[in-house]
Input
Amino acid sequence: MRLCARSEKSSGDALRLMSQWQVPQAERAGVLDRLLRERFIDDSRYAEAYVRDKYRFSQWGSMKISQALRLKHIPDACITKALLEINVDEYLSILKRLLAKKKPSVKYASDYEMKGKLIRFAAGHGYDMEDILSYKGRIHNGNMPVNKRVNKFIPLRHGNFLCRHRKRTDK
Output
């Protein structure tokens, strides 16, 4: 309990730690139930904190965040709810700063090559192509506009990934 009181843990983290500590399989479920009942562990609270930290401090995109949460065995409902808390304007300004910071260090022979490298860089950080391509046309001259969007994420399931799309207001 002391470990869970110090920092947010998910139920998957707790099970992994109990496995490492060689807690018998029969006792793991009881310990996890008690931690959940006393709210030392709450997957939705963990997902919200994880999303907030990763997109603000680590500058991850929503695709990478949702995949990391899925690897921690967080339910899709908790992931979707946590992703809905993302402030779209702040999210897109982080992407803009990330691309602007990376641009001077990119070595390229043509604008096409530079755009491709910046797109791959942003995709590697977990940003979806819709957000990246909203800047692609103006990356080379530094004018990276932010599209006007509704602050509403619509979760869609594509294969093994939980993607989110936003409705545009500029159409």
Summary: The chain has nine helices and two strands. The longest strand covers residues 149-158. Confidence is low (pLDDT under 50) at residues 140-163. Residues 153 and 166 are 5 Å apart (CA to CA).
